[in-house]
Records
---
Amino acid sequence: MHPNPEASQRLAKISTHLRPPTLQMEHRSFLGQQNCRAKGGAPGFKVAILGAAGGIGQPLSMLMKMNPLVSLLHLYDVVNSPGVTADVSHMDTGAVVRGFLGQPQLENALTGMDLVIIPAGVPRKPGMTRDDLFKINAGIVTTLCEGVAKCCPNAIVNLISNPVNTTVPIAAEVFKKAGTYDPKRLLGVTTLDVVRANTFVAEVLGIDPREVNVPVVGGHAGITILPLLSQVKPSFSFTSEEISRLTDRIQNGGTEVVEAKAGAGSATLSMAFAAAKFADACMRGLSGDAGVIECAFVASEVTELPFFASKVRLGRSGLEEVCALGPLSEYERTGLEKAKKELAASIHKGVSFIRNS
Ligand SMILES: NC(=O)C1=CN([C@@H]2O[C@H](COP(=O)(O)OP(=O)(O)OC[C@H]3O[C@@H](n4cnc5c(N)ncnc54)[C@H](O)[C@@H]3O)[C@@H](O)[C@H]2O)C=CC1
Ligand SMILES: O=C([O-])CC(=O)C(=O)O
C-alpha cells in the first residue's frame, strides 16, 4: 500500500495516461496535441526535413527543434521517423514536431512548408566517390522534388544529398518540368566546405575558427571544392606550401571522415551543424535580415556554367544575389579551370538524367 493513497491514485492516473499502448499510438496521441498548438499559427517558419531519421537527419532535426525561428517541424523518412519524432518532440523548445513515415505521407509532410531540407540518400563508403552515389540518390531526389513541386512549390529547398553537383541540376529539371522552377529557391548546401575551411585555416593561424571566414566556391566534390585562401578574413598571407596543404585538406575533408568512419558512413554531425547554420541563414534572410551572406551551389552566371557555388546573399525571396568571385590568385585561377571541367560533366549528367527519362 502506498503511504499516501491520494498521491498513489494520482500517479496511477498519470501513468495510465502516459503509457503508450503501442509506439504508433503514443506517436499519434502526442501528434494530436501538437497539431492543436500548430493550428494556433505561431509565428515562425514551417520546416520539413526529408531523410530525418538518417545520420544527418537526426542531429539536424534536433538542431532545427532548437532554432527559435522554427514554429513547425515536419520529420519525414521512409524508416524510423516515428521514433525520431517522439524523441525530438520532448525537447521543451517552441517548435511543434510532427512525424511522417513512407511515401504515402510525403504530401502531408510537405504541404504548407516554407523551407525543405533534404539529406535523404545513401552516403559514401571508403573507396567511393560522391558520384558513385548518383545511381541511387538521383532517383530519391527526383521523387522528393516532385513532391515539393506539387505540395509546396514556393518553399526554399536546401539540398544536401550527394552528389550535390548533380542533384541540384536534377532538382532544377524536376521543377522546370513541373512548371515551378525558381532559381532563387533552390540551394545546394556547401556550408560544410566553408565550416571545414574555417576550422583548418584557424588551426594554421592559431585563432578561434569563429573569427575566420574562407569563401569556398565551385562545387561540392574533390577538385571542384575551391577554397579562396587569397580572400580569407582576417587577411593572411600563406606560404605556397600552406596553400597547397590547406586546399588539399579542404577538398578531401569528406574523404577524411569517410575513411575514419571505416564503412559506417560519412560526415553526419559536422554536416548537421553546417545544414542547421545554412537553414538558419535562409530563415534570417526570409525574415528580412539584410546582408546574410553564405556560400551555396546555385544557378549562376558567375562563370559560363549554369550552376556554381559562390558567396550568395540571402533575403526575403531566398537567393537575392550571387556575388562575383573577386580577384583570384594564380593558384586559384588554375584550380578554377580544373574545377569547371569536372563541374560541367556533373551538371550535364544531372540535366540529362531528367531530360532523357
Ligand atoms: N552536402 C554535403 O555537404 C553533404 C552531403 N552528404 C550526403 O547526405 C546524404 C545523407 O547522408 P547520411 O545522413 O549520412 O545517410 P544515412 O543513410 O544515414 O541517412 C539517409 C536517410 O535517408 C533516408 N531515405 C532514403 N531514401 C529516402 C526517401 N526516398 N525519402 C526519404 N528518406 C529517404 C534513409 O532512410 C535514411 O534515414 C548522403 O547522400 C551524403 O552523401 C553528407 C555529408 C555532407
Ligand atoms: O564526403 C562525403 O561523401 C560526404 C560529404 O559530402 C562531405 O563530408 O563533404
---
Amino acid sequence: MSLRVNGLKVHYRTLRGDVQALDGVTFSLGDGEIMGLVGESGCGKSTLGKSLIRLDHRMHHIAGSIELNGRDVPIGDDAAMVPLRYHEISLIPQYAMSALNPTRRIGRMIDELLRSRGVRPADRADELRRRLELVGLGTDVLRRFPIELSGGMKQRVVMVVSTLLDPSLLIADEVTSALDVSTQRSVAESLVEFRDRGHVGSMVFVTHDVALVHQFADTIMVMYAGHVAEKGPAADVVSDPRHPYTQMLLSALPEAGEDTGERLRGIPGTPPGLLDPPTGCRFRDRCPMAFDKCAERPPLVETAPGHWSACWKTEGH
Ligand SMILES: Nc1ncnc2c1ncn2[C@@H]1O[C@H](COP(=O)(O)OP(=O)(O)OP(=O)(O)O)[C@@H](O)[C@H]1O
C-alpha cells in the first residue's frame, strides 16, 4: 500500500469567501505506516482526513492529486469515489461512537452497513466474530443497543466495523479523545494490532495528543494553518523537531512524571484566519525565529532521511 498526496488544495465555500483549509499539502505514506497527524485546532487535520474519502458539499477540491497504490483517487468525483469507500479507504469520523443509532442493535446496524456497501453479512460473519474477539468483545455485543456499551466498547465496535472490508487506508479522527487514559491506550494498541495482522494497510491517526501518538505511531506529521510544517519518524520529530512550530508545540507539553509547579503555557498568539491567510510562512507572526525571507513560503524539504520540514531556518533550506 502506498499513498501519495501532492499539492492538495481544498477550500470551504462560505458566504464570506473561500476558507483555504488545505493549501498545497504534500506527503506520502508507506506500506503499513501509522502516521499521527497533529496540530492545533483548526489547522486542517479533519479536512485532510475527509478529503481522502468524502468531500462534503461545502468542500471544493481546488488543486492537487491523491494516488493510492499507484492509482488516482478521484476525490472531486463523488460517483467515482463510491467503489473506493470502505473497500479501499475507510474513515472513523470524529464522534463516530456517539453517532451510533440508539434504536438499532449493534448486530443489525452492522448488517445494514455491510449491505449498503454491497457485501452479504453472512460472508463476513466469521471474520466479524474473530475481530470482535481480537478487541476483547464477545459476540453478545451484537444483540445489545449502543446505550448498553461503555465508550471504550463502542469505539472498539466502530473500529471493527470500519475495517471489516480490509481497507488499504484507514483514517481515524480523534478516536481516543473522549476516552479515559487506559482505554485510550488499549484502543490505540488494537489499531496497531489490526495493522500488524493486515486488517488495514496504513493509517492516518488524527489527534491533539502528541504524547499518546508518539508511543505507537511510526511517523508524525505536524500541520499548521492548512500547511504541512514537518513530517518524520515519530521518535525523531519528538526528540529533534526541526520546525519552530513543532518545537513550541512540544515544549507546551508536560514531561512524563515531572511536576515543576509551573502552569503549562500554550503557544502565544492564535493561528491566522484561513479566509484571508497571510502569504509566505503562515506561522511567521508567532515565530520567534521569523526573518524577512519568511514572507516567501518555505518549501517542504527533506532535511534527513524521511524527515521533512518547511522552514527557512531549518538546515537544507
Ligand atoms: N464546514 C466548514 N465551513 C467553513 N469552514 C470550515 C468548515 N469546517 C472547517 N472549516 C475551517 O477549516 C479549517 C480547518 O478545520 P479542520 O476542522 O479541518 O481543523 P482541525 O485541525 O481538524 O481542527 P480540530 O482539531 O478542532 O478538529 C478551520 O479554519 C475551520 O474553521
